[in-house]
Amino acid sequence: MIEKGVTEGINKFYYLLKLSMYIWVISLVGCLIFGLIPAIISGLELFQTDPWNEKTITLRSLYDGFKRNFIQANQIGLTFSLVCCILLYSLWFSIQIEGIPFLLIDFLLVFMIFLVSISFFHSLSILAMFEISYKNLCYLSCILFFKETRVMLTFSFFIFLFLILAYKLPALLFFCGGGTFVVILAKVGTKTVQKLQFI
Fold first, then answer.
1. In the prediction, which pLDDT does 190 show?
2. Is the pLDDT of residue 71 over 70?
3. In this structure, are residues 121 and 184 in contact, taking their beta carbons and an 8 Å threshold?
4. Around 42, how many Cα atoms within 13 Å sit in the side-chain half-sphere?
5. Which residue among 31, 81, 84, 140 is least packed, with the fewest CB closer than 10 Å?
6. Lowest pLDDT segment from 10-19, 61-70, 132-141, 150-159
7. Burial zone of 137 (CB within 10 Å; 0-12 exposed, 13-18 middle, 19+ buried)
8. Are 30 and 42 in contact (CB under 8 A)?
9. In the 8-state DSSP scheme, what is residue 198?
């Protein structure tokens, strides 16, 4: 029983390691900046198709998904990044000014940044499973922030935990970060996406 658990744990670690390395390699096709999000979505599609099977992870399969998702993934990534940058700049500017009204604006801006960040993670899960227009993807990912409160809190917890591990163990981020991020998105986002199939 213990031997089986250890073997399964090693196999899963190898899966995360292999998936992460392949994601980094494929993302280099898009010069990392434009390649990372399509590569993550491609990895997410592979995991949702056949979870924990390292034989399905090939450069060819990841590259096919990368090409298929390249334009829409970068559209959604640039949109959410731009909105986040504007909100962060507004927050930085608002913090410089004292007063109760500006304190309320600060809290509102923090909430908006949180909403945009979680909506972005929802959009990756949706994009990995559905053929959907860019406009509807933006609307749907923002709506899910309010509709799926439990999923939103779970996303927040795992992303926060992931960031702490990345800060404390940066080597782990490089070797297993991509695969771990894909598994978190798949595990947390799948329930939300499955509900969408019945709407």
1. 66
2. yes
3. no
4. 30
5. 31
6. 150-159
7. buried
8. no
9. T
With a CB cutoff of 8 Å and minimum separation 6, the contacts of 165 are 172, 173
Residue type, 62: L
Written as six digits, the tokens of 108 are 């509102």
Nearest to 173 by CA among 44, 26, 66, 20: 20
pLDDT value at 199 more than 70: no
Amino acid (one-letter) located at 40: I
Q: Residue 117 pLDDT more than 80?
A: yes
DSSP letter for each residue of 95-148: HTS-SHHHHHHHHHHHHHHHHHHHHHHHHHHHHHH----HHHHHHHHHHHHHH-
Kindly state the tokens that stand for 145.
């922030």
Determine whether 41 is exposed, middle or buried from the number of CB atoms within 10 Å of its CB (0-12, 13-18, 19+): buried
